[in-house]
């Protein structure tokens, strides 16, 4: 059979001719791909015209698989604008192997990674190690250092292939063969070429051709003395692979790199005033070496402090990166865009939406941001993690959290469309209101300290939701969210944040229920305000009028505290008794641990102000016992610590010291976070007393020093009380 169509065939496209030749032999795309040793995707792309310039080895393999006669081989080649059958053969030029050169600049902070890579490559022949990580983290640099160490420690050739411009997996093997000076571009030919050489192949930038992974695994099977060190933003996902993730630099290494790049750029020596600016700029870079280099290049011209003052206003740095870097690495925007282009549609849509969150986020937040596309959200997030655009957050909480590296977030947020921005804010606001209700109920109803920690962790996301509710006039919902979370904000030391939220609302814009919540949150967040009693009393009366016993009990407790500050002890007790009645009414329906515990705490505070410390201690112990009886995790010592902070702000240093000592006595020894918080407040009290040595000791306890035993802590708290009594004249 003669398949030649004569001169008419010359005007047909390569795609159409290939399809005609395949169908004339009754071959499927799968059968042709198997016979030619290429992928089905490659055959499909060629026949659809998506790939118009195949490599010579691919054309040769297809021609052989189709068993083309000379005329058909020439016709197929002519559609590509190539002349002569020789064009189907590999070039006869002499190939020179490409060996890697070590990095041109000193590498900072990568000794551990290099040691891990060298150990992984050296343990088993036929090993494939892939370095993954975000763009700009320095994967190529680390690979070159590791290759240099390997070359010094083991015999065998080292070859380097840059696959940045290779877009088809079937062409990757040809690029590797070219780097190794091998005339054959098949697995068998390359394996024969590498036989007995103990070669190390360094394959850089494989992220666009990860589908070549099976070919590499086959090569290692055929050439067991060969090892491969690859870099890619995503793993190859073959069984031989050992993935080593290259993480951003830690703070000290990042600052050292920044300083070295400043010096290399001819900047004058830094003064101490610049150290803080450099540390903050390294945090802005999130430890990415490329981002650090770019920031240092600009800081060398402007100065670190001047750059830090302007960094939030700069969409792109005015000084580009080194010219000896690839164009895609001369700006962070280009580096991130390179990664973004390899994402699927769902991940491309999710990335800029996630950039609206300036910190870490949970899967629940991702669902809220992605809605209504929540079915794709988990898969899209997994793809972003795979491409190192999203990372697991460094926290040990009960819920897994994720975050965008700061340079990625800053770039992605600039690409967010206005409609998407509003979509994200609406979704986050809905999530924040729902989460606030749940956390508030768990904290007030069960004293759930885990919920307190979750509010602390999600504070920035809750704030984003609150801002949207206020900005869009949903004032009652904003007041409900504020009331739901002011208590955990207060308990975690974010009183100023809670007050800032209250200041964004005005009671004239609120319904009666919204106003009652707003007044309670305002009273609870500012317990030293001059109008505290008026605010709390108004909240109590309003809550009673709308028949909200829980709100009324909270307001009565705050009014009682305000009465104490006015030395109205009888009025304070009357208000606490009123809260107790309301609390019992509430407990008939749903337990309200917050009120149940705060009533005896309030009695204790009154006893302390009257000078009856023994009675105060009994009330605080009763509060702790109440929490325990109700099966609550509510931390009375944590509340006492915050009360001590309030007493300190009022100048009642002796009362603050007594509260801290009582909190230490009631707190469990295993609660490291509470111990740290108590020590921090104690250090502040000691400093106010002028006791510098004690303040430094307490700061050490609050820091990284080993915790002293309970007996030593108790004695130190007693000393603090004695010192405070002496200074206050109440000895």
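^ structure tokens above, recovered residues below v
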């Amino acid at each position: 059979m003669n398949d030649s169509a004569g001169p008419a065939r010359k005007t047909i496209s390569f795609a159409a001719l290939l399809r005609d030749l395949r169908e004339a032999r009754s071959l499927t795309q799968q059968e042709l791909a198997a016979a030619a040793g290429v992928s089905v995707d490659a055959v499909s792309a060629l026949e659809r015209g998506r790939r118009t310039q195949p490599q010579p080895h691919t054309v040769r393999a297809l021609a052989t698989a189709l068993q083309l006669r000379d005329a058909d081989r020439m016709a197929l080649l002519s559609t590509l604008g190539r002349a002569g059958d020789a064009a189907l053969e590999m070039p006869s030029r002499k190939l020179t192997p490409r060996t890697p050169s070590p990095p041109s600049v000193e590498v900072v902070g990568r000794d551990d990674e290099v040691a891990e890579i060298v150990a992984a490559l050296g343990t088993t022949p036929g090993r494939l190690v892939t370095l993954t990580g975000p763009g700009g983290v320095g994967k190529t640099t680390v690979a070159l250092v590791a290759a240099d160490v390997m070359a010094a420690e083991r015999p065998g050739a080292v070859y380097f292939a840059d696959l940045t411009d290779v877009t088809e997996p079937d062409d990757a093997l040809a690029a590797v063969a070219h780097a190794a000076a091998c005339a054959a571009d098949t697995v068998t030919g390359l394996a024969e070429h590498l036989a007995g050489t103990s070669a190390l192949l360094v394959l850089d930038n494989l992220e666009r051709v990860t589908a070549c992974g099976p070919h590499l695994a086959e090569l290692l099977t055929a050439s067991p003395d060969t090892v491969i060190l690859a870099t890619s933003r995503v793993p190859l996902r073959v069984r031989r692979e050992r993935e080593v993730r290259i993480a951003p630099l830690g703070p000290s290494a990042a600052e050292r790199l920044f300083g070295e790049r400043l010096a290399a750029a001819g900047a004058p020596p830094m003064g101490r005033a610049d150290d803080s600016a450099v540390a903050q700029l390294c945090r802005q870079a999130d430890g990415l070496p490329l981002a650090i280099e770019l920031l240092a290049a600009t800081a060398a011209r402007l100065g670190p402090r001047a750059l830090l003052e302007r960094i939030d206003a700069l969409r792109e740095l005015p000084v580009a990166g080194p010219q000896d870097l690839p164009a895609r690495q001369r700006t962070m925007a280009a580096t991130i865009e390179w990664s973004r282009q390899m994402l699927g549609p769902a991940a491309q849509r999710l990335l800029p939406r996630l950039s609206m969150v300036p910190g870490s986020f949970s899967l629940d937040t991702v669902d809220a941001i992605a809605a209504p596309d929540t079915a794709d959200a988990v898969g899209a997030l997994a793809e972003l993690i795979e491409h190192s655009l999203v990372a697991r957050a460094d926290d040990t909480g009960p819920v897994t959290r994720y975050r965008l590296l700061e340079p990625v977030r800053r770039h992605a947020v600039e690409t967010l469309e206005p409609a998407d921005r509003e979509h994200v804010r609406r979704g986050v606001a809905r999530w924040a209101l729902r989460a606030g209700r749940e956390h508030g109920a768990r904290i007030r109803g069960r004293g759930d300290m885990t919920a307190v920690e979750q509010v602390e962790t999600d504070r920035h996301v809750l704030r984003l939701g609150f801002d949207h509710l206020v900005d869009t006039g949903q004032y009652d919902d904003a007041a409900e969210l504020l009331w739901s979370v002011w208590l955990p904000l207060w308990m975690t030391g974010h009183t100023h944040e809670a007050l800032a939220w209250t200041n964004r609302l005005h009671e004239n814009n609120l319904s009666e229920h919204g106003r009652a919540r707003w007044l309670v949150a305002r009273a609870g967040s500012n317990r030293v305000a001059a109008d505290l009693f008026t605010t709390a009393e108004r909240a109590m009366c309003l809550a009673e009028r709308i028949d909200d016993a829980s709100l009324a009990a909270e307001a009565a407790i705050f009014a009682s505290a305000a009465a104490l500050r006015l030395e109205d002890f009888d009025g304070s007790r009357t208000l606490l008794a009123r809260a107790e009645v309301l609390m019992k009414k509430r407990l008939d329906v749903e337990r309200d641990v917050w009120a149940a515990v705060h009533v005896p705490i309030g009695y204790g505070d009154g006893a302390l102000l009257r000078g009856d410390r023994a009675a105060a201690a009994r009330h605080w112990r009763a509060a702790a016992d109440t929490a325990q009886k109700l099966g609550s995790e509510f931390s009375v010592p944590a509340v006492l610590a915050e009360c001590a902070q309030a007493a300190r702000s009022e100048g009642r240093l002796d009362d603050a010291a007594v509260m801290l000592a009582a909190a230490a006595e009631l707190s469990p020894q295993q609660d490291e976070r509470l111990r740290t918080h108590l020590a921090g407040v104690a250090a502040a009290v000691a400093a106010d007393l002028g006791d510098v040595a004690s303040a430094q000791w307490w700061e050490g306890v609050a820091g990284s020093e080993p915790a002293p035993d309970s007996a030593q802590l108790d004695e130190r708290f007693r000393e603090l009380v004695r010192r405070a009594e002496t200074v206050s004249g109440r000895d």
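The longest helix spans residues 418-446.
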